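Lab notebook, bench 4. Continuing the backlog of folding jobs that were queued last week. Each job is logged with the same field layout so the records can be merged later without manual cleanup. Today's entry covers ABC transporter permease, a 135-residue chain. Filled in by technician R.K.

JOB TYPE: sequence-to-structure
TARGET: ABC transporter permease
LENGTH: 135
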Amino acid sequence: MVETVSYTIAPIIYYFTLYSLFGWVLENVHSFFTRGIFLKPNFLRGPFKPMYGFAPVLLAYIISPQTNWALALFLCFLIPTVIEYVSGLFLERLSQKKWWDYSEIRLNIQGHICLTYSLCWIFFHLYVFTFYIQK
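JOB STATUS: finished
OUTPUT FIELD FOLLOWS
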């Protein structure tokens, strides 16, 4: 069952920071196993990827225990994907550099998002809501 966080600032900051750190770890572990490099370049200094913090916080406010499961799955797909796409466009325009590129993966949009990783978001966020984010 998917639950929402209480509507105070402390849990928002906590979950945002926790999942931004977790995203940094996840990306670097993936980089290590796919390219043999643990510390891949990062737009921000330090172990922090805000893109991974925004989606769980937004989803926690949108999805409730009463949310239809199909809608919850769709939102776990859509919201992180939109955040990833907007983040990719913003960072590329701001820094004149593409920080990730899915161009070689089938079914991508401008290399910023692809269906494969968007489907992974569903499972990642369902796991997060099931085991970590509580009311």
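OBSERVATION: Residues 9-131 form one domain.
SIGNED: R.K.
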